[in-house]
Automatic annotation (TrEMBL):
Organism for this UniProt entry: Paracoccus alkenifer
UniProt-recorded Gene Ontology molecular function terms: RNA endonuclease activity
SUPFAM superfamilies (alphabetical): Metallo-hydrolase/oxidoreductase
InterPro entries noted in UniProt: MBL (IPR050698), RibonucZ/Hydroxyglut_hydro (IPR036866), Xnuc_lig_assoc (IPR026360)
This protein's name: Putative mRNA 3-end processing factor
Length: 331
């Protein structure tokens, strides 16, 4: 008898668990063996026995959690046999080192865990790769029709236009330390900003790692001594701390897909909302399901009900996983 998908991968309180391989994917609590899709801290937690991930994700976890973040680690370098399944890692286009994980059993459906993914070109990581599968597990962070993300280079152009309009006001951009900050810097460079960019100290280690990986970010200076730098990047939490008071009359900006919702921008006191996301928007989510044409779709962390309804209307078997604990990168 061919195993059902639930016999190969199933949701548990600790996260997705693969019984024939005896491992979890992006577990929510310490487990004996974890496969990690990417380095954001809602997916990559410390304290596991053994961790398998891309080499870059392992490096990022060490930067964020210390070299002893797991008892042992293994870099994913190709198809690997674990128990009764073969696993392989494929680029997700989300952040540096991010991967989709394909589980291929000896018999039964191939299950693709997408983690977080983005199909918009991103100069700071490998592009998303389509992977044939029978069951596709998709995120639904922006799983509602309202979320249509604009061209990120156009949004970077809006930032530079604001800097030209208000030359005497420093522009502070809130951006997550892993992925968004480096992408924002790369977009500003692509839009024509060649001057030094000041960065909050919390961004420095991961910016240094991106540069070491061959990703050019141009001249960066510490925000503690910005000199003449008029563009400053910081984690969003800095906007609610005394740190921000060192800047006179700043233009507060925030780079996030959530800036589509103007009420969120207003509630944060954001003057310049920049709709720049490292997740798939509604058109990309639905296009990906159509293109992969899986036999079944499982939906997790996000607007599950909206994407579930779309699948129902398009006669695509789907189910919500109702996993809790996955959110945007904590601030």
């Amino acid at each position: 008898m061919t195993p059902r998908p639930d016999n190969i991968l199933c949701p548990t309180e600790a996260g997705l668990y693969c019984p024939p391989g005896d491992f979890h994917i992006d577990p929510l609590r310490p487990v004996p063996r974890a496969l990690i899709t990417h380095g954001h801290s809602d997916h990559a937690r410390p304290g596991h026995g053994a961790v398998m991930a891309t080499r870059q994700t392992l490096d990022i976890m060490a930067i964020r959690h210390g070299e002893d973040f797991a008892a042992s680690r293994q870099a994913a370098t190709g198809p690997t046999r674990i128990g009764g399944v073969t696993v392989s890692f494929h680029p997700a286009g989300h952040v540096l080192g991010s991967a989709q994980i394909l589980i291929t059993p000896d018999r039964g459906p191939r299950i693709l865990v997408s983690g977080d993914y983005c199909r918009t070109p991103n100069p700071t990581c490998l592009p998303w790769e389509p992977v044939a599968c029978d069951v596709f597990i998709t995120e639904a962070t922006f799983g509602l029709p309202v979320f249509h993300h604009p061209d990120p280079l156009v949004e970077a152009g809006r930032l530079l236009a604001s800097m030209a309009e208000f030359p005497d006001r420093p522009h502070l951009v809130g951006a997550y330390a892993l992925g968004k900050a480096q992408r924002m810097i790369a977009l500003a460079r692509a839009a024509g900003h060649d001057a030094p960019i000041a960065i909050h100290g919390a961004l420095q280690p991961l910016c240094d790692y991106h540069v070491a990986q061959g990703i050019g970010l141009g001249p960066l200076v510490p925000a503690s001594d910005p000199g003449g730098a008029r563009l400053i990047l910081a984690p969003p939490s800095a906007f609610a701390s005394p740190w921000v008071q060192r800047f006179r009359d700043p233009v507060l900006a925030y780079a996030s897909g959530w800036m589509t919702v103007r009420a969120r921008a207003r509630s944060r006191g954001i003057e310049l909302p920049l709709v720049i996301s490292d997740h798939a928007d509604w058109p990309a989510l639905t296009a990906t399901i159509r293109e992969l044409a899986p036999q079944e779709v499982w939906i997790t962390h996000g607007a599950e009900d909206g994407l579930l309804r779309w699948c129902e209307l398009n006669a695509i078997p789907a189910r919500p996983l109702r996993l809790v604990g996955y959110e945007d990168e904590p601030e």
